[in-house]
Design brief:
about 60 residues, alpha/beta, 3 strands
């Protein structure tokens, strides 16, 4: 299962990654985006099954993503 985490704060992104990996141990691939533009590009390229989005990110908000 592919999960994308889009969060501009590195600490929050790490916490979200650990949480997702604990929920689905060994059964998940996590990809990360540090801003809205990266999130749009990654989501288009990789088509994740689930997305965890920060609503306030640089370059594009979570709503825009």
């Amino acid at each position: 299962m592919l999960v994308m985490i889009a969060e501009n704060d590195g600490l929050h992104r790490s916490f979200a990654r650990r949480t997702v990996e604990q929920l689905w141990p060994g059964d998940v691939e996590v990809i990360e985006a540090s801003d809205g533009e990266d999130a749009i590009n990654l989501a288009t390229e990789r088509e994740p099954l689930h997305v965890v989005l920060d609503l306030q990110m640089p370059k594009a908000t979570g709503i825009e993503v």
